[in-house]
Structure to design on (536 residues):
């Protein structure tokens, strides 16, 4: 009986994952090899991706937007997390952090929609600029790549502030004291001590940003509109309008491959189990 | 003076980022409070007209019920499965432990869109209907790795010794699990359940692909969004924000109180 215990406890979760995660992926791989009409299985959908510039373009768009979002979010979040960790008095830090990520807990869809309110033609920004006489015509801010980037950056600044704040707080103050004792100024201490030691935390956050942003359909669809397609939008278009599951499957597997390559690329900085 | 400058710059920068973070939320809530049919400036409120419209909308209240049901049940299942697996792997180290751990955390690497589409293909192959149940299955898939990872990291030596003591005193394995391990781990169990509920509650794409008639709240919000700028969406969004803010604040208070005592 007791020899069965490990299998009885681990078994259900493993079975669930095999049945509802691995099996669907296998079916998806199999589906991706089927043509929508005509001959037997083949690599036609993958060939279509690499030869059709509009499909190929979606991946390039996705990579460009995601890279920009990741870099911007890290650059904005790091100083913010630093101010929270260093300048806010200890007893207020928790409150400051909770406030900084409060909109994180609102509905994901509603958060993107709120940016539409801000950026729309009759929205707050245009209203203020035109009202102040700075503009005669409202700017086209919504339904652009910039709107997608702003929506994404807003979400990921909150996430990254959280992870970077955590790694700054884990840093023992004695490192900085030692650097100061050895004659390093604040800037040198930051560049040679603080930054390298918080780099793993930054990398984990940046990788998370990359993975979540490149797979997201909602933000580009609401804020970017259909002016240019990102990969998730292209995938949804195949399912929704055309019912082309084979092509959608092929595109999904290509997207998964990109994420896997990114993971392998930065695996040595990503000690995920330490976080 | 030279000492104060960085502090001033830091405070200004923090204020700027806080402004950026809160700008859309403030705009959302502010323009949910005006009676006009377009939630744009100039502000003419206050009025609760759209809250009234939203709360008496049958589709939205039904979707709210579905969301709660799916979130609570799928999270409970994810926590139970994750807890059992974490305990089994941490305590007994069965052959292939590393492989099972990797398998159980693998779904974290795959985007929700792909998980949802895979399940949709599976449903189509089986000829099964799309429903709350299939959306719930999808939500267990995304939350199980999270619950497993959190609970596995909490399986410490201290519990292992308490469990061994219980066994020595004649407790069966199920008694050890229910009466020793679960109570000792309740903060982690609570945390993983709460996280799962919030993820499931907010999840859109899987529910969108896998439900048909009995949709969840995010799917109904999506239907509202198609109408462009719409004060109903503002009101729903503000309500969702209010509920989450109250939830987060109360959990903060519980956690803080535990820390102090």
């Amino acid at each position: 009986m007791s020899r069965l215990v490990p299998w009885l406890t681990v078994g259900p979760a493993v079975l669930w994952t095999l049945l509802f995660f691995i099996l669907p992926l296998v079916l998806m791989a199999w589906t991706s090899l089927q043509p929508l009409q005509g001959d037997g299985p083949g690599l036609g959908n993958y060939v279509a991706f690499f030869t059709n510039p509009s499909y190929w373009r979606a991946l390039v768009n996705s990579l460009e937007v995601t890279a920009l979002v990741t870099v911007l979010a890290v650059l904005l979040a790091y100083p913010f997390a630093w101010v929270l960790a260093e300048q806010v008095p200890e007893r207020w830090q928790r409150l400051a952090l909770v406030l900084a990520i409060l909109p994180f807990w609102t509905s994901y869809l509603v958060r993107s929609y709120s940016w539409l309110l801000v950026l729309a033609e009759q929205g707050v920004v245009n209203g203020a600029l035109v009202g102040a006489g700075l503009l005669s015509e409202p700017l086209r801010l919504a339904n652009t790549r910039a709107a997608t980037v702003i929506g994404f950056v807003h979400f990921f600044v909150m996430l990254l502030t959280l992870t970077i704040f955590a790694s700054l707080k884990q840093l023992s103050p004695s490192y900085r004291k030692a650097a100061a004792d050895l004659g390093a100024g604040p800037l040198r201490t930051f560049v040679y001590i603080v930054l390298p030691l918080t780099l793993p935390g930054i990398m984990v956050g940046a990788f998370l940003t990359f993975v979540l942003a490149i797979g997201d359909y909602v933000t580009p669809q609401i804020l970017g509109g259909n002016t240019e397609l990102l990969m998730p939008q292209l995938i949804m278009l195949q399912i929704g309008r055309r019912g082309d599951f084979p092509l959608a499957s092929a595109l999904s597997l290509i997207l998964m491959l990109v994420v896997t390559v990114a993971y392998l690329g930065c695996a040595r900085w990503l000690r995920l189990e330490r976080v | 003076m030279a000492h104060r400058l960085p502090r001033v710059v830091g405070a200004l920068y923090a204020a700027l980022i806080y402004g950026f973070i809160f700008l859309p939320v403030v705009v959302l809530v502010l323009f949910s409070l005006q009676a006009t049919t377009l939630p744009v400036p100039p502000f003419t409120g206050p009025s609760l007209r759209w809250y009234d419209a939203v709360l008496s909308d049958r589709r939205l209240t039904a979707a709210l019920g579905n969301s709660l049901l799916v979130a609570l049940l799928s999270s409970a299942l994810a926590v139970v499965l994750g807890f059992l697996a974490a305990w089994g792997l941490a305590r007994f180290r069965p052959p292939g432990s590393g492989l099972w751990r990797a398998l159980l955390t693998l779904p974290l690497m795959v985007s929700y869109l792909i998980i949802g589409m895979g399940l949709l293909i599976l449903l189509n192959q089986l000829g099964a209907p799309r429903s709350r149940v299939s959306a719930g299955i999808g939500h267990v898939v995304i939350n199980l790795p999270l619950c497993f990872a959190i609970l596995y990291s909490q399986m410490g030596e201290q519990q292992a010794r308490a469990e061994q003591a219980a066994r020595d005193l004649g407790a069966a394995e199920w008694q050890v699990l229910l009466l020793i391990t679960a109570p000792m781990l309740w903060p982690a169990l609570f945390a993983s359940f709460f996280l799962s509920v919030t993820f499931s509650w907010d999840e859109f794409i899987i529910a969108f692909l896998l439900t048909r008639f009995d949709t969840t709240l995010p799917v109904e919000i999506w239907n509202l969004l198609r109408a462009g700028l719409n004060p109903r969406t503002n009101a729903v969004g503000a309500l969702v924000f209010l509920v989450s803010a109250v939830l987060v604040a109360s959990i903060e208070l519980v956690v803080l109180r535990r820390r102090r005592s």
About this structure: The first helix of chain A runs from residue 5 to 32. Chain A touches chain B through 80 residues (CB under 8 Å).
